[in-house]
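idk why but the lab printer keeps eating my pages so im just putting this in chat instead. protein + copper (II) ion:
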Amino acid sequence: MFTGASGPLTPVWTYDGTVPGPMLRLRQGQPARIVVENGLNEDTTVHWHGIRLQNAMDGVPGLTQPPIKPGTDFVYEFTPPDAGTFWYHPHANSLVQLGRGLAGALIVEEAEPVAVDRDLLWLLQDWRLAADGQMAPGFGSTMDAAMSGRIGNIVTINGTVPIDQSVMAGERIRLRLANASLARIMALRFEGHRPVVVAVDGQPCDPHEPEGGRLILAPAMRIDIVLDMQGDPGKRYAVIDDFYDGLAYTLTTLAYDTASSLRAHPLDVSPGLPRNPLPEPDLAKAERQEIVLQGGMMGGGKLAGVGGMMGMATPGMNGGAAWAINGMSMTGDGHAGMAPQFTLPRGATCHLTMRNETAWWHPMHIHGFSMLVLARNGSPVPHRQWQDTVLLAPKDTIECAFVADNPGDWMLHCHVADHQMAGLMTVFRVT
Ligand code: C2O
Ligand code: CU
Ligand code: CU
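predcted complex ->
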């Protein structure tokens, strides 16, 4: 019932019967074993988004494992090297399976507990519902595929239409934000509060206040913030998403208990988190690679820069291509025999430039690695931020670096599900 207690029921697809799926809590450096049984009527896989794991456990059908057939199961076993906020979702028929609700949070706990009063998670999902509360039809329409993707009309927090979030004056909250939407980019502002970003995509960064107090959270991204609750007892403060011009809305409201403050002074312990054991890129000896994002609708309904490629009869339609990377459109979810765009020798540093030639936003996601974000449009990116999903604005150029320490064939794709399906995807190999 996404439209309120009296609204119609919306059929969804679930992990273990809930939306989102169960929150999985693992320990850093401790082996995990997760059995996935496929009760759907179609193939699936599970991808452990952001976890640096063995290629065979990465959940890409055809590329890293055979798809899990209906009625069968697959055992995922891995040891998460990094503590932080991650998530899991299918990598088969992704647009439909993720869009119908298959997603869950995966939290890897730090070896030592972090000093906060509460640890909260908001898993955000965006749904396109019809007036009768049913999932709107038309997954993969040409319009969505070649424009901004399937943006919905209802945003939920942890599977429910947001109600007030009760807080106490003076408490320190670690809030883990995860955007599991198909396409909706969010820019969250916490009225009356000053959130401090302590991790992006699960990886701790130098603690900092975001520019303009806005947290930009694109599909698949996670941001951990520390919030010192400095509001007044009994008061209410809005959390606003104003990413899209003219479409700002109140996501939820922080409702303060009437009790007086937990503490007289805010904590002065630094909110920073211990860094994860990421290999340090050696920029002096880096292998340079560039990927160029092409395609999408321009003015007048024309597709830009995607021509003469595979399956172009009706661009963006029925699995056709609307986008390309370096002139090549790989569509779908991943499959066997995808030729790698580039190959890296194991242990090399890759200096990767991503250039967005399109008129659209793209959260570009790398499997198996976290990338140190070096520069955006030539300006250095501060805070030593490592990300597995980097948002490119139209015409942006991003430079990042990572050490290719993990052998296998790895995906690199836009996490707007429609874009991925319609060709904004590639593969690279580490030998
Ligand atoms: Cu979270 Cu290939 O994706
Ligand atoms: Cu991933
Ligand atoms: Cu995209």
